[in-house]
Amino acid sequence: MKKILILYYSQSGQLKRVLDSFLSDLEDEEIKLDIKEITPKVKYPFPWPFYQFFDEFPESVFLDGCEINELEDLEDDYDMIILGYTVWYMAPSIPITAFMHSEQAKKVFKDKPVVTLVACRDMWVLAQEKVKEMLKAVDAKLIDHVALTDQGGSVLSLVTLPGFLLTGKKKPFMFFPPAGIKDSDIQEASRFGKRLNEALHQDKEKSGEALLKNLNAVSVNGKLIATEKIADRSFKIWSRLIKASGEKYSFGRKVIISIYVCFLITLLLTVVPLNILARKILNIFQKDKLKIMEDYYELPSGR
Ligand SMILES: Cc1cc2nc3c(=O)[nH]c(=O)nc-3n(C[C@H](O)[C@H](O)[C@H](O)COP(=O)(O)O)c2cc1C
Questions:
Q1: Continuous segment of H or E residues that includes residue 35
Q2: Which residue of 81, 85, 93, 124 has the lowest C-beta tally within 10 Å?
Q3: CATH of the domain at 25
Q4: Number of separate domains in the chain
Q5: Which helix (H) or strand (E) element contains residue 146?
Q6: Ligand 1 contact via 18 beta carbon (within 6 Å)
Q7: How far apart are the C-alpha atoms of 152 and 8, rounded to whole Å?
Q8: Do 193 and 233 belong together in one domain?
Q9: In angstroms, what CA-CA distances link 7 with 47, 60, 115, 295?
Q10: pLDDT bracket for residue 270 (50, 70, 90)
Q11: What is the domain extent for residue 134?
């Protein structure tokens, strides 16, 4: 009998739907699942009030975490752990960060093979680098990574995701698709659990090798990596400013957040389109470099 621990935090339930599909062909009489939801002591609201949505920005970026409830009945002899997370401001969501920094994480992850599953808008590469560091810190062994992203690509989802997060509505409008991950992509996530089931029956998780190769588990768009790195640097500067302007949810923070949002909208309407165009031209001359980066960030599972 093998025991698999599944840890996740999902706010609107989208990541949970992805996980349910992922796990649908994993369990059988020889493989048992222990699914645990990480819960913050103070629930984050959904849909998000405008200022609170941006108020969580510095704490996400600086990986501060939040107070979470201790997980009950956690065992210490799991054969594999699946960590399902979403991305908040190019970092793992605050409750996931909190868990990864906890004493329970140190105990449960030690020497265990881990599969990470991310479900987010489009930008997860740097968040996954942070998760890799967190896993290293608790002596876990990352063996696979799966990433599902929103429909509509990186430009249209810049409108549909905030719309969904601030109103709770996913419906398509004008030429915009529905917000979130395509239903068919969610359904097809069952292929990962099926493959893990076969591998666990053959003890392959003990080899330390990736088990989800050739399943299109991840597909990194090399052209987005530079944008993520620039945005991450700018996030750190603005996070420092927002933190310095006052306590969480204070009036001081609201003032700086208002300036930041105006800055962001101006950036999105001016610099971002110019940057996309410049990168398109530059990337023609950097194909080999981009390929090397894509291959690196797609590890361990690859396409
Ligand atoms: C505060 C906040 C910040 C987010 N930042 C990002 C981001 O930087 N990159 C990204 O791809 N998705 C981002 N998302 C989208 C989430 O990763 C995720 O797709 C969405 O919140 C739905 O997840 P759920 O299952 O928890 O409801 C953000 C969501 C929230 C709430």
A1: strand 31-37
A2: 81
A3: 3.40.50.360
A4: 2
A5: strand 141-149
A6: no
A7: 25
A8: no
A9: 23, 19, 11, 27
A10: confident
A11: 2-219
Is residue 137, in this structure, part of any structural domain at all? yes
Inter-axis angle of helices 271-284 and 287-297, to 10 degrees?
Answer: 110
Specify whether 90 is located in the same domain as 215. Answer: yes
CA of residue 222 to ligand 1 center, whole Å: 21
For a pocket test of ligand 1, which of 9, 94, 125, 161 has the largest count of ligand atoms closer than 8 A to its C-beta?
A: 161
Give tens-digit pLDDT for 65-75.
999 999 999 99
Atom of ligand 1 nearest to the CA of 56: 1
Residue 277's pLDDT is 81
| pLDDT computed for residue 225 by the predictor | 87
CA-nearest of 106, 102, 108 to 40 is 102
pLDDT band at 34 (very low <50, low <70, confident <90, very high): very high
Say how many Å lie between the first and final Cα of the chain, rounded: 30
Q: Do 168 and 97 reside in the same domain of the chain? A: yes
Q: What is the pLDDT of residues 121-135, one digit of tens each?
A: 999 999 999 999 999
Q: Tell whether 116 is covered by a domain.
A: yes
CA dist 190 and 271 (Å) reads: 39
Q: Does 120 contact ligand 1 (Cβ within 6 A)? A: yes
Any atom of ligand 1 within 6 Å of the Cβ of 186: no
Q: Which helix (H) or strand (E) holds 265?
A: helix 251-269
Burial label, 19 (beta-carbon count in 10 A; 0-12, 13-18, 19+)? buried
Is residue 221 very low, low, confident or very high in pLDDT (cuts 50, 70, 90)?
confident
* Residue 299 is assigned to a structural domain of this protein: no
196: pLDDT strictly greater than 90: yes
Q: Residue holding tokens 């088990």?
A: 211
